[in-house]
Amino acid sequence: MIPFKRISYTLNFIRNVSNKFTSNSVCQYSAKIKPVVTTDETVLNDINNSMFKPRKHPGIVKPKTVQLPEEFVKAVVNALEDRPVKALAADSRKLFLHLKGRNPPIEKEELNRRVEQTKSKVLSRFDNVVINTDEEERRYNQMAGNKMENILRKSIYNWRPIRYDSHTCMLYLMARSAAEYAVLIKIFSEISGRDPEFKPRSLFDFGSGIGTATWAANAYWKKQLYEYVNIDASREMNDLAQILLQGGRGSGTVPKNTFYRQFLPATKSMYDLVISAYSMMELPSLADRLQTIINLWNKTERYLIIVEQGTNAGFKIVNELRDYILQVKSEGNEGHVFSPCPNDETCPRFLLDDGTPCNFQVNYYTIPVGQTSVFKKELYSYVVLKKGKRTEPDIEWPRIVRPTLVRPRHTICRVCTAKGELKEVIFTAKKHGKVTYHCARASEWGDRLPLTVNFEAVDETNCDISEVSSDSDRDDNVNETICRVSDSEKCKSTDESNT
């Protein structure tokens, strides 16, 4: 029989060791937000059944690189037949850069505020100046006026409307046709892919320019489209667009039911597809932009597309028009965002206000006229608004809003979620499965991921027990003490197993 004192001594020793163990350990408790990814069941089954491969999942927006149609290029060659093509190509680059750096005109209230602010700042520098004569007063007033003018000239964008005469229209054709066509092809491609039952009969293009929207729409719905209405303030631009449709010589046949106007019609006719591409920047004020966009929305039967440069200025215009339309709650005029946003919430990029726009990128080849066709990238900001409430089953799919970072054994995607949040998700084959991992790896900036992302708080406990766990002698003492309260055979078997 084992003496009671020995058992008591043994238990006390173990208790002391345990107390010392816990007293030397430092535990930290924290809640970490982790993404919970759920891949779309239909997509997962289709890939597993070899219906398509992960690199061709339905969230990918095609095509990757866009080229102008041969028919359009031939029409441009014919239209420029008697013109100095190389000189036009060189001058068109200047117009391209000018349009890329364009900003909307400053509002009157903001202009007055900046003038008063600058005036106070300049006059404060002359507070201690003693003026004795009228001549000195005149000289100081002139100095202050010149100083104010210089400051305002540098700080305020000098917006001026661009007059598109015949020559400027040709420059615009050379500078912007390929990029604008590529952007619209990308947008129309997603509409066609996600809404295959959409067969537009009519198209309304505000700020139609050289007619790139007509050419891009014909790439998807030429057999269905019956009516084209093109609105552009420049008569010369309308003439050029019509000549291009006639093959570039002006002697061909204009497609039936194709109309050109310089002003928005007052009729209440509605159109399946309404487009405003690179036009809102040319309106003189916010009030004009809002009035124009509500007129376009009232003419929209199914889809309204707004596109601007992928700059901060372009993004700001697209976002303000998006929010304005979503606030319209009149009966029969309700709508939602079809793309790029997977939600109707306030844009998280706008709320972040980090100086970067919500934009996307399309690859294209420049027009091969008067210059070698080269590979380029175009940044653009856009929104596609659809009439009615959301009914699509895939509204939860997040959109990749920055370039995908493909790394060894993992892929990083920055996405905009259905809850209107910007999140970063790191995909691995081990954690998310090979199908989901390869889908993420094949996706690019602007694509949607065929999954849902929810973020949950996970409690984590980290304890520092290095001092105790490294003390092998103490562990041996514990084992030895335990053996004292056992029979000799158990101790022997324990020692043999340890060796």
Automatic annotation (TrEMBL):
Signal sequence interval, chain numbering: none
InterPro entries for this protein: Mt_RNA_Methyltransferase (IPR052571), Ribosomal_Rsm22-like (IPR015324), SAM-dependent_MTases_sf (IPR029063)
GO CC term (a single one): mitochondrial small ribosomal subunit
Protein name: Methyltransferase-like protein 17, mitochondrial
GO biological process, one term: translation
Organism from which the protein derives: Exocentrus adspersus
UniProt keyword Zinc-finger present: no
Molecular-function GO terms, alphabetical: iron-sulfur cluster binding; metal ion binding; methyltransferase activity; structural constituent of ribosome
Function: Mitochondrial ribosome (mitoribosome) assembly factor. Binds at the interface of the head and body domains of the mitochondrial small ribosomal subunit (mt-SSU), occluding the mRNA channel and preventing compaction of the head domain towards the body. Probable inactive methyltransferase: retains the characteristic folding and ability to bind S-adenosyl-L-methionine, but it probably lost its methyltransferase activity.
Coiled-coil residue windows: none
Keywords, ordered alphabetically: Iron, Iron-sulfur, Metal-binding, Mitochondrion, Transit peptide
Compartments, as annotated in UniProt: Mitochondrion
